[in-house]
Specification:
8 helices, FAD/NAD(P)-binding domain, 359 residues, alpha+beta, single chain, elongated, 29% strand, 6-stranded mixed beta sheet, D-Amino Acid Oxidase, Chain A, domain 2, 9-stranded mixed beta sheet
């Protein structure tokens, strides 16, 4: 017997499936032969309470204590390791963007103390509540926790058919067809494709490619440097051992796919970072890309269209999905099951509903 079928085995899918499994019989299906194949496995893995808009920052803040609780609940290694985020205004444009961030302002001299290789600093701010996230430990913890709660995971099971079946749904995934009461669409960049297949209105999801690479150059890398984010969103970099993880913060529209890095985007990241630092990056060791998927207001989408009960979205989390995963999964499970939103999550369900523009 299956009450809820969750489509998608990335962080969104396994986190909400785990929370749902405390109250329902849950089946999770994943199209790929392994879980976390796409964006989850390619995340920059940063928890930053100052990152994102208000509807992102609130579940991110609520996730801080929940990450720590999950270490015991899911029997994981430490999930958060403190790592400061430095927001850099390298020029007047970047400095203007700092005014929109709820981060503590510091002087250019203080910014250079945190990261001595900065050569261009007009203004700066920092977030000392930020951390790196052990993404795969969290994902594996959710997967194990789901199974311990009686949930089932089927990999290599793409959804090939989905149709209304009375008050519920009949879903063909892989070699199995399952009757379920509720479908949770956590299929990442493929969310709108699945909705269309089900005959449900789409949410206008836009997958955007983000490129990252590991690079090195003339300057030695200090692992103690912060994550440095250009406030105008033109690049970011952070130490990765004795090398540097870099990105041009690109957002290239894409079809849902297994995203591949573009050499020009990697070169752009190196050019921008070298212009504002003394790093002299020269060598790229590896590069990758992932899809960050957003709707128009760049806030997550949680729940069903009012006239489409039993088909819930858990989508549109963009580049923020992992940092707000613990709280957003609890919120999503409450919405799907019709339960009250937990008191520590200051996000009304209407603010993330598919029909929020009409509310």
């Amino acid at each position: 017997m299956v009450d809820v079928l969750v489509v998608g085995g990335g962080m969104a899918g396994v986190s909400i499936a785990y929370e749902l499994a405390a109250h329902a019989n849950v089946l999770l299906v994943e199209a790929e032969p392994a879980l976390a194949t796409h964006t989850t496995g390619r995340s920059a893995a940063i928890y930053a309470p100052t990152y994102g808009g208000p509807t992102v920052r609130r579940p991110t803040a609520a996730s801080g204590p929940r990450f720590r609780a999950l270490e015991t609940e899911l029997d994981t290694p430490p999930l958060l390791t403190p790592h400061t985020v430095l927001w850099l205004g390298a020029d007047d444009e970047g400095a203007a963007h700092l005014d929109r961030l709820p981060a503590e302002r510091i002087s250019p001299a203080e910014a250079r103390l945190l990261c001595p290789i900065l050569s261009q600093v007009v203004a700066a701010a920092y977030d000392d509540e930020a951390s790196t996230i052990d993404v795969m430990a969290l994902h594996d913890g959710y997967r194990r926790g789901l199974r311990e709660r009686g949930g089932e995971v089927r990999m290599a099971s793409p959804v090939t058919g989905i149709a209304r079946d009375g008050a519920g749904w009949r879903v063909a995934a892989g070699s199995e067809t399952t009757a379920v009461d509720v479908v949770v669409n956590a299929a990442g960049a493929w969310v709108d494709e699945l909705a269309a297949k089900a005959g449900v209105p789409t949410i206008g999801l836009r997958p955007l490619r983000r490129t990252a690479a590991i690079a090195s150059g003339a300057q030695p890398i200090d692992p103690a440097w912060p994550l440095v984010c250009d406030a105008a969103d033109r690049y970011y970099f952070r130490p990765e051992g004795r090398r540097l993880l870099i990105s041009p913060s690109d957002e290239t529209p894409s079809e849902p796919c297994d995203a591949k890095p573009d050499e020009l985007d990697v070169a752009l990241a190196i050019e921008r970072i070298n212009a504002d630092t003394t790093l002299e990056l020269r060598r790229v060791h590896t590069a990758w890309a992932g899809l960050r998927s957003f709707v128009a207001d760049r806030s997550p989408v949680v729940g069903a269209w009012p006239d489409q009960p039993g088909f819930a979205f858990f989508a549109g989390q963009g580049g923020y999905g992992i940092q707000m995963a613990p709280a957003l999964a609890a919120l999503g499970a409450a919405v799907v099951l019709g339960h009250p939103v937990p008191d520590d999550i200051d996000v009304p369900a209407r603010d993330v509903s598919p029909g929020r523009s009409a509310n």
